[in-house]
Hints:
- Chain A is an alpha/beta fold.
- Chain A has a single domain, classed as Alpha-Beta Barrel (TIM Barrel), CATH 3.20.20.
- Chain A is 32% helix and 18% strand.
- Chain A contains nine helices and 14 strands.
- In chain A, the strands form three sheets. Chain A has an eight-stranded parallel beta barrel with strand order 3-4-7-8-9-10-13-14, surrounded by six helices.
- In chain A, helix 2 (78-90) runs parallel beside helix 3 and helix 6 runs parallel beside helix 7 (247-256).
- Chain A starts with 5 loop residues before the first strand and ends in a 20-residue tail after the last helix.
- The model of chain A has no long low-confidence stretch (mean pLDDT 96).
- Chain B has helices at 32-37, 77-83, 121-130, 148-152, 173-182, 195-208; strands at 8-21, 24-30, 43-47, 56-59, 62-63, 67-73, 90-97, 108-113, 133-139, 157-162, 169-170, 188-192, 211-215, 231-235, 242-246, 253-255.
- Chain B contains six helices and 16 strands.
- Chain B folds into two domains: 2-97, Beta Barrel (Elongation Factor Tu (Ef-tu), domain 3); 108-215, Nucleotide-binding domain of ferredoxin-NADP reductase (FNR) module (Rossmann fold).
- The model of chain B has no long low-confidence stretch (mean pLDDT 95).
- Chain B is globular, with a radius of gyration of 18 Å.
- Chain B is an alpha/beta fold.
- Classes of the chains: A alpha/beta (307), B alpha/beta (261).
- At the A-B interface, strand 5, strand 6 and helix 8 of A face strand 14 and strand 15 of B.
- Bound molecules: flavin-adenine dinucleotide (FAD) and flavin mononucleotide (FMN).
- Flavin mononucleotide sits between chains A (20-23, 45-46, 69, 71, 73, 99, 126, 164, 191-192, 215-216, 219, 241-244, 263-265) and B (221, 227, 229).
- The site of flavin-adenine dinucleotide (FAD) has 24 residues of chain B, from strand 4, strand 6 and helix 2.
Amino acid sequence: MANLTVNYLGVEFKNPVVTASGTFGFGMEYNELYPIEKLGGITVKGLTLNERQGNPAPRIFETSAGILNSVGLQNPGVRYFAKHIMPKLKELDLKIIANVSGSTFSDYVEACKIVDASGVDIIELNVSCPNVKQGGAAFGTNPDTVFEITKLVKEAISTPLCIKLSPNVTDIAAIGQAAMDGGADGLSLINTVSGMAIDLKTRKPVFHNIVAGLSGPCVKPIAVRSVYQTYQRTKAPIIGMGGIANGNDAVEFMAAGATLVSIGTMNFKDPFTPLKVIDGLNAYLDQNGIADVNEMIGCAHPTGKKI
Amino acid sequence: MEHLEKYQVATANIIKMTNLCGTIYDVTVENEYLAKASRCGQFVHIDCGDEFVLRRPISICEVTDSGIRFIFDVRGKGTKRLSEKQVGDSLDILGPLGNGFAVRKGKSLILGGGIGVYPLYELAKQASKENPCDVALGFRTKELVTLEDEFKTKCDNLYIATDDGSYGFHGNALQAVKEKLESGAYETVYACGPLPMLKALKEITDRNNIFCQISMEERMGCGIGACLCCNIKVEDDGEEGFKHLHVCKDGPVFNAKEVLL
Ligand SMILES: Cc1cc2nc3c(=O)[nH]c(=O)nc-3n(C[C@H](O)[C@H](O)[C@H](O)COP(=O)(O)OP(=O)(O)OC[C@H]3O[C@@H](n4cnc5c(N)ncnc54)[C@H](O)[C@@H]3O)c2cc1C
Ligand SMILES: Cc1cc2nc3c(=O)[nH]c(=O)nc-3n(C[C@H](O)[C@H](O)[C@H](O)COP(=O)(O)O)c2cc1C
């Protein structure tokens, strides 16, 4: 049994496996199936300042080796989270990463302040949301905007902050660098890849919003590449995600530079995926005589540790 | 009472599988937990094979002594793959899921259309135990009329309708019992079927103030209420006038009065 403990942004995780925002609710549904305390941590559903009902149905569509989703951030709002959900989560022995979204700078800051006071371990800023004041382009596609929002939020909170990057950009490492320059403690990637599907019966877009977010095993190579490039450029502590289904996938992400790995879509296929990732990662380390999972982080890089 | 976990990932062996008619398959699987925990109107989420990222939701048709029975139609790749399974194969089943029908006292009507007939069988068994109960079932055509004999023993009156009039009443199941329903013969209606049928039913039960439970479908992710994908609109006093609930966790059975169809 190798050492699986990792430190991410000053927070100690009992193992590097967490769950991805929006795929795991607030953890309670999966806690019925297994004690989620076995995980390093969970990332909660994307929170916004005020409650949101989200997009009309359909919100999900299966593709080859993945899914498209268009949930539209349905959530009960940060105040409800702080008052009713966080107290329950605090009783569990695992780390809580709160994913926060907004549509204006001030929304983000206000929401983060409330989440900051609720006692979460890390705040993950979802900058893939449309910026309503700038024509609806995602915050996360412009390095200057990312710099600015990071700076504003960082100044307003004391919880460690990571910025969750959108892959729908030409140079994801540059956006990551902007976030780090703005004062982020770490990065998280990737969010969903912009995609779309057409209904064969109606010959119209499946989703009301026309475009939707692609995730699952089909995006894994994009995600591994994104983590590799971003780590190379920034050396930031990274939460890596995108299609992780087993321990070997986790090994790839960690070698590319991730400290934590996050499981999203594959929870739907097999709710036990995160536990299998922990076991698989551990088995990989044992089989390869690696005593500490931390040795793995970034080892694929020319500068990486020889193990 | 012993504590039951709500749902599990169960490995269940297929002990019976027949082609009921057309592309419709009738499957019985064995699993102690599913037998013990399943209730009428709930569903299971089935992993149809390695090539699928999403499971497929299928309603529980009957709770047997040793497991559950479900009946499904081949509609696409997942159900096609499921139809190729054989007796002796094992299935990876997440369930039982959702809130089923709440069986109420007094005279009831069970209304099913098309593939929506099958999720009502266990309900008919329960609802007819101590209370008077009528069943109305609609099918496209005579060849698809199924489970007639089984339902017959689980109700006082069974009405069968076919869209093309090739068997029983000419029309849909709702039309077959509309007059009786409007005359106030039933205290409760339970229904599952195509959206137009549910809409027409809701119009009647709302207008006549009849308690009506309907089983809903929507595209689904996790099946347990975590991903919030299978949303349906229900009435709400708040600003927007509606809120989104989720078929997998809040349903699939809803109070027809609250749902915005
Ligand atoms: C709560 C519930 C209970 C159901 N019970 C039954 C049942 O007892 N018998 C039966 O034959 N069918 C039932 N269905 C419908 C059944 O789930 C779909 O026919 C099936 O998922 C189609 O999968 P496919 O891969 O064959 O089709 P495809 O069209 O290839 O599926 C593509 C995707 O769309 C989803 N999908 C397609 N149609 C539906 C639908 N009508 N509802 C929800 N998701 C859909 C699939 O799950 C899959 O993710 C139920 C649906 C729900 C939501
Ligand atoms: C149904 C669904 C909902 C999601 N909701 C959010 C969200 O609220 N906030 C966010 O930052 N990412 C959200 N994501 C993105 C995931 O957290 C993750 O970044 C992405 O799906 C890639 O990982 P995966 O392939 O393992 O799912 C969502 C993904 C899915 C499938």
